[in-house]
Amino acid sequence: MKNPFKHIIEDKELPEAIKEKVVNDINLIKLSLELSELFLVSMPDVMLKFMDTEKKDKPDEENSADSSEPTSNK
Q: What confidence score (pLDDT) does residue 28 get?
C-alpha cells in the first residue's frame, strides 16, 4: 500500500503561515504538558517530602523542649 500523504503533496512546499501555526501549536502542547507535570507531579512530591520532614522534626522539638527544663542533681 502506498503512503497517501506522499501522493497528495509530493513536490509542493507548505506556506510559512501553516508552518508557523504548526510550530506554535506544538509549543502550546509542550507548555501544557510541562505545566501539568509541574502541578500534578513535582509540586505534590515536594509537598509530601516537606510534610514528612515536618513530621520528623516535631518529635525532636518536643524532646528537646523536655530536655531544656532545668534538672536538679541532688
A: 97
pLDDT digits (tens, 9 = 90+) for 22-55: 999 999 999 999 999 998 888 888 888 888 887 7
Distance between CA atoms of 7 and 3, rounded to whole angstroms?
7
Residue 20 C-alpha from the chain's centroid: 27
- What is the rounded distance in angstroms from the CA atom of residue 60 to the CA atom of residue 43? 26
Q: pTM for the complete prediction?
A: 0.51
Q: What is the residue-wise DSSP string for the chain?
A: ---HHHHHSSS-PPPHHHHHHHHHHHHHHHHHHHHHHIIIIIHHHHHHHHHHHHHHHHHHHHHHHHHTS-----
**Which amino acid belongs to residue 44?**
P
